[in-house]
Design a protein that fits this description.
Layout (H helix, E strand, L loop, with lengths): L1 H20 L18 E3 H7 L5 H10 L3 H9 L10 H10 L1 H13 L3 H18 L7 E5 L7 E3 L3 E5 L10 H4 L4 H4 L7 H13 L9 H18 L5 H4 L4 H9 L1 H10 L8 H8 L16 H16 L5 H6 L3 H8 L5
Parallel strand pairs: 1-2, 2-4
Antiparallel strand pairs: 3-4
Helix pairs in contact: 10-11, 11-16, 11-18, 16-18
């Protein structure tokens, strides 16, 4: 009798833990062996390899990078207009600047393993193409932005500012007075999740940017859920760009965070300051403990979306984005933090 009792107890415990872990944290999209090709252009290598920027050189860059080159000149390093005859001279000064040249060499030495990250991007965009075959796959263009941009997104390209992902120990970041909480998000491992997040954010824009906090939270939750589905082997600390301690705070205080929003009637609040308070990047959420992370509202949105996708196991990512009303997802998910 004791033997059977022990077996029954073991079975019950196993079943209990199986149920607890049976969450649909992402959509499984198997693609191994069916990877699609992606185009990667090393713009910074091209740029710094040029000794001068004659009219022929300018024509080369305009033809090779027709959409990106004007944006780089006019919006990223902001040295003038692309059609200004003096722009070639300004570019020459940019690549000849000793500080910029040192940054280029430093970045090149840090990113010798960049092909490994290209592989991650290829798998992510293969999964993306499998779910959304009608959508365009961007060219991947690497750059040195002069510490201006980490991710640059346009309809045809996805720009990766490698100088913004040099590691939390990078000697340049403290000199630039970049906040410590941001530096913790500037490791090489953050590049691919940030890039995929940036691309999805532009591909799936919120229909009404003036909507309530709940809808914005759940929209961000959809983006994060999709990032996790495209990068299933990536740790949550990188998916959410949180430190381990910040992620732990969210997990341990999910119930308190949710009921703070409910009790203060913030879920259907449309004030921009409240959206920024819970969704924007910050060292912590104003009015909450300093252990809380900025963007915790995005993490909470992901929890609601995960609950919905777990409750409806046949739902696809396309189905998820087809639902525009955040309240509908909340109600159908029956979300209630324990």
């Amino acid at each position: 009798m004791d033997k059977y009792l022990k077996i029954s107890l073991f079975a019950m415990i196993f079943l209990l833990f199986s149920c607890q872990n049976d969450e649909r944290a992402y959509v499984d999209i198997p693609v191994e062996g069916n990877e699609i090709p992606i185009t990667v252009k090393r713009f910074e290598q091209d740029l710094f390899a040029h000794q001068n920027f004659s009219p022929d050189s300018m024509q080369y860059f305009n033809e090779t990078y027709p959409d990106f080159f004007p944006a780089f000149v006019e919006n990223i390093i902001r040295i003038g207009r692309i059609n200004d005859p003096a722009t070639g001279l300004y570019l020459q000064k940019f690549v000849s600047d000793p500080n910029i040249r040192e940054l280029y060499d430093y970045t090149k030495n840090k990113w010798t393993d960049f092909p490994d990250y290209v592989r991650q991007l290829q798998l992510a965009f293969t999964r993306y193409h499998k779910v959304f075959p009608e959508k365009k796959i961007p060219e991947i263009i690497t750059l040195i932005s002069g510490f201006n941009y980490g991710i640059v997104v346009d309809s045809t390209y996805l720009g990766l500012g490698l100088d913004m992902f040099l590691g939390s120990d990078c000697k340049y970041y403290p000199m630039l007075a970049i906040p410590k909480y941001k530096i913790k998000q500037m490791n090489k491992q953050n590049l691919v999740p940030a890039a995929i997040n940036g691309w999805l954010t532009t591909e799936f824009e919120l229909d009404n940017p003036d909507t309530d906090l709940l809808t914005k939270m759940i929209h961000q939750g959809k983006i994060l859920y999709t990032v996790k589905s495209l990068l299933p082997e990536t740790p949550d600390t990188l998916i959410f760009a949180f430190t381990g301690k910040k992620l732990q705070w969210c997990e341990e205080n999910e119930e308190q965070l949710w009921y703070y929003l409910v009790d203060n009637e913030l879920l259907y609040n449309k004030e921009e300051k409240q959206s920024l308070r819970f969704l924007a990047d910050a060292p912590f959420i104003s009015g909450l403990p300093k252990e809380s992370p900025g963007r915790a509202g995005q993490w909470l949105g992901y929890q609601i979306v995960k609950k919905y996708m777990t409750k409806y196991p046949e739902a696809t990512l396309r189905d998820l984005f087809a639902i525009k009303d955040g309240k509908e997802i909340l109600i159908k998910s029956k979300y209630k933090p324990d």
